[in-house]
């Protein structure tokens, strides 16, 4: 039993941590030559992708996935948008329509941008994955030390 729980926690740790790593690497590249601005969140309330301002709301196996768009302006008055995936399966939506958020963008390529909150979320996921892997290792070690049955 304990080995099964350790295996499930190990798999959970990998599925939490592996997607955060490339996301953090991409954001770190943007951050090297970055500037910040504010952006406005817009969400789609319509069931079809051509309604509202985003690519739409889709259904997944675990819940609804929303794609909020963030409209922001660079100092040279270019208006750009970026989009993130915001899942409402286990938590409330991270972004509310009309909310103002901090956008970090590359000065040389302002279309390369991310929402500062996403940087924080990726770090949180990496720490969470580390905790899940640590607990899995502790459970495995306890099972082996006390010679618990499989």
Structure description:
With 150 residues, the chain is α+β, with helices and mostly antiparallel strands. The protein has 2 helices and 8 strands; from the N terminus they run αββββββββα. Mean pLDDT is 85; it is low at 46-58. The longest helix has 31 residues, at 2-32. It has a 5-stranded antiparallel sheet. Strands 2-3-6 form a 3-stranded antiparallel sheet, with no helix packed on it. Strand 2 (58-59) and strand 3 form a beta hairpin.
Tell me the helix content.
40-55%
SS-derived structural category: alpha+beta
Strand order of the largest sheet: 5-4-1-7-8
Q: Specify Rg, calculated over alpha carbons.
A: 20 Å
- Number of distinct beta strands: 8
Topology as a string of helices (H) and strands (E) = HEEEEEEEEH
Taking pLDDT < 50 over at least 5 consecutive residues as the criterion, the unreliable ranges are 46-58
How much strand content do the residues show? 15-25%
Q: Give the distance, in angstroms, between the N- and C-terminal Cα atoms.
A: 6 Å
Characterize the largest beta sheet: strand count, sense, and whether it forms a barrel. 5 strands, antiparallel
Q: Helix count, per DSSP?
A: 2
Whole-number average pLDDT?
A: 85
Shape descriptor: elongated
Q: Can you tag this structure with a few keywords?
A:
elongated, five-stranded antiparallel beta sheet, single chain, 24% strand, three-stranded antiparallel beta sheet, alpha+beta
